[in-house]
Specification:
Oligomer: heterodimer
CATH architecture of chain A: Orthogonal Bundle
CATH superfamily of the largest domain in chain B: P-loop containing nucleotide triphosphate hydrolases
Keywords (chain B): Amino-acid transport, ATP-binding, Cell membrane, Membrane, Nucleotide-binding, Translocase, Transport
Strand content of chain A: under 5%
CATH class of chain A: Mainly Alpha
Family (chain B): Belongs to the ABC transporter superfamily.
Pfam family, one (chain B): NIL
Number of helices of chain B: 12
GO molecular function (chain B): ATP binding; ATP hydrolysis activity
Largest sheet of chain B: 6 strands, mixed
CATH class of the largest domain in chain B: Alpha Beta
CATH topology of chain A: MetI-like fold
Structural class of chain B: alpha/beta
InterPro entries (chain B): AAA+_ATPase, ABC_transporter-like_ATP-bd, ABC_transporter-like_CS, ACT-like_dom_sf, MetN_ABC, MetN_ABC_transporter-like, NIL_domain, P-loop_NTPase
Helix content of chain B: 25-40%
Mean pLDDT of chain A: 91
Mean pLDDT of chain B: 89
Shape of chain B: elongated
Number of strands of chain A: 0
Strand content of chain B: 25-35%
């Protein structure tokens, strides 16, 4: 049955590509989360009305975020080829896609973090200050827990965007389902391969959304 | 305990500077409940935030318990803040923490270890009457319960001073009273100095020992609550006092009566303390040949004693009415002739 429907699909290859996509998405999401969090907190604290108002570092962070957020991903990959080569010694394979994936999506997530933090009730931050909390304590015990639902739904959206980016990165040789769909599916006119790869990407996206929704529900006590 | 000297805070607006707090001198004594009343924009919120260094004064000094809050910063200021805690109009609890975790928060900030935190939290929960709600999240609590958590949290590090920023303004009248009772209780039991700001004279009347009235950044009147109630000097103070001594209905009834009784002299009598029981009215009626019409009467309980007011309409010969007013003055009863317009 399956053989008839998808005559050209090499399931072993397909499974390998799925794992590559999952690997790229997971690692890139992890680093995006960490870097985006740091940048977002920096933007929030140094911004107007922040606890550590600082025009210069705010301008620098904002400029960095805006520039890398504005470059189309496919161009970013090409621009980062020298850096990737330097870091990993190769521009092929799943690891080669990571620098571009992270640099492309961390600024995007940083803005989401900034928005999430701005949504926190100012009174709660004031209360923590009135108790004598340090900025570090405020970050750890007020800003992060109080914005957790928004941080999680933000990283969910970002992770889903990253699945799309991995497919793009795949076209230029990073492996994964995008690569398979393009090389085996599109270029060799095997529509069934493209179709299966698409279905697998959809399943991954739905799974990420599902996990994200469950986590948000669990942490949101409002 | 708390001393404000020429305290000034200016905010630069786009086209001018605003003196939010303008050369305020105040002294607040240990163990007292001191109220600051004013309409919104009077500067009371800015003033109270300078007591724990959340706002820095433009000029002048704030000293709390020997610590000059206006000049210290960094670790010293954070340490000092643990002894000058604050509760808020909107409670400002962390929604992500349970009641017990919220109360433990200032203890975590102060570096108290877990083993010592737990009994302390239990004790505080009991103090504010929230037993059984330790594991509830703020979203599951009523407004009054949230403020109780706020109070427990504020008391966690055994402060010397409790600042209350419109702490009852978001609560209904009944809950307000129960929170005010709790504050009075804490004040007595822990000998805690309480500074509160409010726009409700009811709050001042119910728990404060002394009150300062603020208008446009300045303290325009200050004194014992009973004294201020008995003889408010400034127009704004009179307006605040009338919040609790005259209900809106009574005001309407009076203007109705003025219209219905175009003759006579309207008089407001203020009684304080023991004199409330003396039969001044009976003697007034018996001694003078006038008709006495009681339009309104009420008694208020302040922290320092009882305060009553009666509004009378005296109808009769001009001479007799004048003598009657004279008689009331001689009885040491606050007497004020009300304008008919």
């Amino acid at each position: 049955m399956i053989e008839q429907l998808f005559p050209n699909v090499d399931w072993e290859k397909m499974w390998e590509a799925t794992l590559e996509t999952l690997y790229m998405t997971a690692v890139a999401t992890l680093f995006t989360f960490l870097i985006g969090l740091v940048l977002g907190i920096l933007l929030f604290l140094t911004g107007p009305k922040g606890i550590y108002q600082n025009r210069i570092s705010n301008l620098i962070t904002a400029a960095f975020v805006n520039i890398f957020r504005s470059i189309p991903f496919i161009i970013l990959i090409i621009l980062l080829i020298p850096l990737t080569k330097l870091l990993l010694g190769s521009i092929r394979g799943p690891n080669a896609a990571l620098p571009a994936l992270i640099i492309g999506s961390a600024p995007f997530y940083a803005r989401m973090v900034q928005i999430a933090l701005a949504e926190i009730d100012k009174g709660v931050i004031e209360a923590a200050r009135s108790m004598g909390a340090t900025t570090w304590t405020i970050i750890r015990k007020v800003l992060l827990p109080e914005s957790m639902p928004a941080l999680i739904s933000g990283i969910t959206v970002t992770a889903i965007a990253l699945v799309g980016y991995t497919a793009m990165a795949g076209i230029i040789g990073a492996g994964g389902l995008g690569n398979l769909a393009y090389l085996d599916g599109f270029q060799r006119s095997r529509t069934d391969v493209t179709l299966v790869a698409t279905i697998l990407i959809l399943i991954i996206v739905f799974a990420i959304q599902w996990i994200g929704d469950i986590l948000v529900k669990r942490v949101d006590k409002r | 305990m708390i001393k404000l000297e020429q305290l000034t805070k200016q905010f630069r607006l786009s086209n001018r500077t605003l003196n939010a707090v303008d050369e305020v001198d105040l002294e607040i004594l240990e163990g007292e409940i001191f109220g600051i009343i004013g309409y919104s924009g009077a500067g009371k919120s800015t003033l109270i935030r300078m007591l724990n260094g959340l706002e820095k004064p433009t000029a002048g000094r704030v000293t709390v318990n020997g610590m000059e809050m206006s000049s210290i910063s960094g670790a010293d200021l954070r340490k000092a803040r643990q002894k000058v805690s604050m509760i808020f109009q909107h409670f400002n609890l962390l929604w992500s923490r349970t009641v017990a975790e919220n109360i433990a928060f200032p203890l975590e900030i102060a570096g108290v270890n877990k083993a010592e935190r737990e009994p302390r939290v239990r004790e505080l929960v009991r103090l504010v009457g929230l037993e059984g709600r330790e594991d509830a999240y703020p979203s599951e609590l009523s407004g009054g319960q949230k403020q109780r958590v706020g109070i427990a949290r504020a008391l966690a590090n055994e402060p010397d001073v409790l600042l209350c920023d419109e702490a009852t303004s978001a609560l209904d009248p009944e809950t307000t009273d129960s929170i005010l009772d709790l504050l009075t209780d804490i004040n007595k039991r822990l000998n805690l100095t309480i500074v509160l700001i409010t726009h409700e004279m009811h709050v001042i009347r119910k728990i404060c020992h002394r009150v300062a009235v603020m208008e446009a950044g300045r303290v325009v009147e200050m004194g014992d609550v009973l004294q201020v109630f008995r003889s408010p000097q400034q127009p704004i103070t009179k307006r605040f006092v009338s919040q609790v001594t005259e209900s809106q209905d009574a005001k309407q009834a009076i203007s109705q009566l003025i219209r219905e009784n175009p003759d006579g002299t309207l008089i407001r009598l203020g009684f304080v303390g023991e004199r409330t029981g003396e039969p001044v009215l009976a003697r007034l009626i018996r001694t003078f040949d006038i008709d006495v019409n009681i339009l309104q009467a009420n008694v208020s309980q302040t922290h320092g004693g009882t305060f009553g007011s009666i509004i009378l309409n005296l109808v009769g010969e001009d001479q007799a009415v004048a003598e009657a007013v004279e008689f009331l003055h001689s009885k040491d009863v606050e007497t004020e002739v009300i304008d008919r317009d």
